[in-house]
Every structure is written in structure tokens, then in C-alpha cells.
Design brief:
5-stranded mixed beta sheet; alpha/beta; two-stranded antiparallel sheet; 4 helices; single chain
Length: 170
Amino acid sequence: MTSSHGGKKMWCVGELDDECIFKMEDVLKIYEKPLSEREPVVCVDEKPVVLHKDTRPSIPMQPGQVARRDYEYERCGTANVFCGIEPKAGIHFTQVTPTRASPEFADFILEIAAYYPAADTIHLVMDNLSTHTRKALVDRFGEAAGGWLWDRFTVHYTPKHRRSLNRRCL
């Protein structure tokens, strides 16, 4: 899988070592689990967004004409959107935050845990971002509460993207 910028490859998956294969097989096994109220599977990620303000008023819809908006906008900063989904149940979690820092991540995880009070464990699939850790919850809520909250989850990290420094990405 590659991402390109102006036709130039920016990264690619490096060699598939034992750790990468183990993590991918673990995630695939979790995705195969049947729908379960006692062990829901929730996938989490975040996305930065640019905040826009219209510079000209929109032209409202009229009979036979759709509403129109100008393409120009004023940039008004950025925000983060945490997204979670339990795909087999169609349940979505969304939380807009100023940043994707550890305290905001911890608050989002608390929201997910609160939704499943009767779950034995919540399988959490997420990437290896530095804030996606037990430490984030402990720093936010203290050792007892943060540790208890982290233990509500069985965490499944996706494999890390590896930059290829000494071979071409195809």
C-alpha cells in the first residue's frame, strides 16, 4: 500500500517480520469474531480536520436550482475528530477535540467504556500512536481509575507502518 504526493511514493510497508505478521493475524482474528454484547469489537482512529468559514454567503436553493456555495473560505484553525465503530453492530462513536493529545484520547476511551457497562471485555483495535496507551488513561484519571479503565479493554494494535529506506516502494 502506498501513499503518493505528486506522483512520488511517500511510504510503503517494509518487510513482513514476525511481529508484523502476528499483529495482523491477531487483528484479522478479532474481525472474524461474531457479534457479541459481552465482547464487542470497536475500532478507533482519529482524523485532523481544517475548520472553514465561508467568505461569501451561500445562494439558497430555488425551484429547479440546487443551493450553491462559493469555493473560497477562511481557514479558522484545526481540530481533531476521534472516531470509533463497532462494525458488526453499526454503532458509531465520534468526539471532536482541539487536539489528539493523551487527555482527549483518555476521555474518548471512557466514553466507549461507558457505552458497554456489561461487557466482559471490549476488544479495541487501533494503531500505535504514542497517545494510545495505558499511560494516557493513568495520567488523566489516576492509577486506580485509569488502570481499571484500561483493563476493561483487550487492546489489539495494528502493525506499524515501516518506512523503506533502502529499497524502492513498488
